[in-house]
Amino acid sequence: MTGWLTRHPAALSEEERAALKDVLARCPELDAAGHVRDFGEMLTGRLGARLPAWIDAVDAGRLPGLTNFARHLLRDFDAVTAGLTLDWSSGGTEGAVNRIKKIKRQLYGRAGFDLLRKMILLQ
What are 13-22's pLDDT values in tens digits? Predict the structure, then answer.
């Protein structure tokens, strides 16, 4: 069922669409999946301009978990909007930092800075 709720409606088969419609008729609270799907579209389509309208729609829905998530996005609204809009990413840098931290943890207490430096430069 999670797959039905999170996938794009066009990616569902007719049987899955009918089953999802039946589930949503029985449990209207699950209709928040529309908000989740919309947020996924903003992520994949770089549609950060839609964020204020999405937050307003989520607030109007009054679903505690989703409302809290939306309110937390407001804490750093400019950064979230930039992340949903701009093409560049700091993923490469973050990956390098995580790799260095992993090596450092592996060598903790066993070696000095010289070996750590060599391990980082070799990989």
Answer: 999 999 988 9
